[in-house]
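Try it yourself: sequence plus 4'-phosphopantetheine, in.
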Amino acid sequence: MAENKNLALYPGSFDPFTYGHLDILTRASRLFDEVEVTVAVNTSKKHLLSVEERCDLIRECVTHLPNVSVASFEGLLVDHARDRGALALVRGLRQVSDFDFEFRMAFANRRLAEGLETVFLMTSEKHALIAASIVREIHHWGGDISSFVPEPVLRALSKTSQADSQP
Ligand code: PNS
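Structure, out:
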């Protein structure tokens, strides 16, 4: 990435990547020169999809967004942001109840890396009720998730055994 370009990271678990995530990412891609979807490796959480699967699927979902890249990271987000020379972190807000956790995380990250801004973007009302945890639960019980996740994710999840998946 050229020195003078503004890079923002869009970090998260993305398990799975939903239309809500795509909505936030699309908005971020219009505001920043470059946006990296930063997929967290969290070994303490049981995931529906592996980090590699999540990264590959997100890449398939963002081919129409030329300034978006996808990477995974393990450790502290601020360290990865510093390594990448990122200017900001982007987080999506769906509803007021998201604020509590998001504020605490933003203040913690600011204390660790003053100058790295957290930018909150609001989803479209259409996606305000989508949460990856709810998508996982619907998938677990064999429900239709086609209105929640982009086509590549839907295809991948339809191959995943519902019985094996975690709600
Ligand atoms: O999609 P999620 O699960 O809400 O994303 C949370 C995530 C991955 C962004 C957050 O847990 C994170 O940044 N983890 C990396 C460890 C870290 O830097 N923690 C300090 C911030 S609280």
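One thing you can check immediately is this: The chain has one domain: 7-165.
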